[in-house]
Amino acid sequence: MKEILSPISIMEKMVEKLQKLYLNHDQKAEGIIQFHLKHNNEIIDCFIKADLEKLVLNQGVAEDSTVTVKSTFYNWLDLAGGKLNPVLGVMSGKLKFKGDTSFFNVLPRKSLNGEVLVPNDPVTKFEKNPTKYWIKPKKVLVLSSSPREDKGYTDFYLKPFIEGIKKETEIELVHLNKYKINSCTGCFSCWMNIPGQCIYQDKDDFHKLAEKMFEADLIVYAFPIYADGMPGILKNYFDRSVCRAYPYMIEGMKRVRHPRRYINKNHSMVIFSICGFFEMINFDPVKAYFKALAHNRHTPVVAEIYRTTAVGLYSSPFNYKKLNNILLALEKAGSEIVNFGKIKRKTLRIITQKIGGEKQDLTKINEWWDERKGSKNYDY
Hints:
The chain is an alpha/beta fold. 34% of the residues lie in helices and 19% in strands.
């Protein structure tokens, strides 16, 4: 269990970082910086002992200090972090020094982190406006993430969409359920121990799938709504994808993000999702997730297809005409995305048209489910 850090442990971390810079510091000297720091109505006594090789933190009061600091613990942190000017600190009474204050020069003044070479991965024109800078994709990969693979409604509605894409370019359909993707353990080994390599590198299929997806110019993420979100197998994949990025933080379009280890400048994605409920609001959680994912992956979403009432639309004979019109529009949408990097509004209106939602429709749906209780036929 994570514990709250004490002021002494914070001081220890600070001195450890300073020691790394002290090795090449040009103002080494022998002496002691004594601290009397007030925190939560207690006085914390500790001192940094410096020699020509190292800085060491000790608890207690030194017999003969070179310089002494009296302040609150937070005021000292502000001073050490460059947020509090020492002169203003003395004038305001926040800091009290005694002894040779020039001895503070033994503490390196550089950033505690030193200089870091952060990979360059700037915002691109394509990210900002993918439609304007659209290049017809040479390869599209469809990642179907229904745990039922091709036996569910996701693949039923996906089929005509794929046919539309197939008429325009190369396409590959991948069922995520056929791949073994272990859950991320949050160990940060891929960032700290062996950069870019997960602890499951040779123990599951993540790397093989990630490489396959990287080679595609456009990725279609297809999935049903499960428990107000995406199925766990897809979330597992996204969690594991942290190893495909560097841990550093850089400026994005509106907030910070990580630079990528592998860069495909014109990568884009399409979201294709279905649910059994009537209301479009049921897709809001995944809309928000993919909006954030698009930014953090440097991969814009060029189209979103959300189809409510997926079960009722398929099952009711009275919806047959609407169903066929929607399937034809889905095929057209696949072609439009490849050629234009977007779906035309008229096409999207047909795909997302409202089906049901009245009280009598709820009754029909509930009767439909009630008739199937105990059934071993899971084709629905």
